[in-house]
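Archive maintenance. Older records in this collection stored only the sequence; we are now back-filling the structure field for every entry so that each record is complete. The fields below show one back-filled record exactly as it appears after the update. Entries are processed alphabetically, and Ribosomal RNA small subunit methyltransferase I is next in the queue.

ARCHIVE ENTRY
Title: Ribosomal RNA small subunit methyltransferase I
Organism field: Rhodovulum marinum
Length field: 303
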Amino acid sequence: MRIGRPSKRQTIPERPALDILHTPLSPGIHFVATPIGAARDITLRALDILASADVIAAEDTRTARHLMQIHGIALGDRPLIAYHDHSGPGVRDKLIAMATGGKSVACVSEAGTPMVADPGFPLARDAIAAGVPVHAAPGPSAMLAALTVAGLPSDRVLFAGFPPQQGAARKAMFDEVGGLAATLVIYESPKRVARFLADLAGALGPDRPAAVCRELTKRFEEVTRGTLGELAAAFEGREVKGEIVVLVGRGMAEAAGADEMEAALRAALARASVKDAVAEVASALGLPRRQVYQAALKLEADE
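Back-filled structure field:
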């Protein structure tokens, strides 16, 4: 996933990391999260796996080798195999065959968590189908880092990946996700982000809250918050560099009818206070809390 890498501007000296364990790993595929920017964001467990795995499969072998050097991990005579979007089934078959034969295979993205907008999924799918154990070593993620700093609701989230570039496909995507009551997380190229924000504002409305996160965890990290209309204006004509994550606040699903709201309220009031019932129904149906509260008062008055 090209969503960041250890910054070339960093001057972290090569040195042994603390308490790296060189212990045998169980056979299988070990998906390892790597830093999206700051090299020291790597976890101790990730370092243990990189130090101990029999085989390392990397989306970018240069980035993986550099990360290991920063943390004092020697590759030695272990295989370092390129596994990326353009790798054919033969590479996956080779990695799975190694794991089947008792080898531990560490799979790392160029940066971030494998499976998130990178080629990890086909490998996991085929490994599971072949009965090969699959393990996760969680850690850095551009999506989660962006959710942390965006200031948008994180209780319900949809990761939409990279948006289509073609007009018809892009419109279909907007139609599909625009009304969901969830915060949208989208990766976009810095060269296309201005046009994308303008398209979003046109399709979803200029008043939707949103944020643009650039170069997360790196030296020039920047988070720009506002409405889609404000962000489209702010980025219009601007030269943008670095890795981009766009977040859009939740939409409102089609309003529930009065009968549906009343039925939901009756069920909620039977087991909860008015306050809690109103909060539950308003959230579930995507309705204004004031509207639901007035309906709840009317129900109580009628009974």
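Update note: The chain has three domains: 28-140, 143-248, 258-302. The two ends are 58 Å apart (CA to CA).
Entry marked complete.
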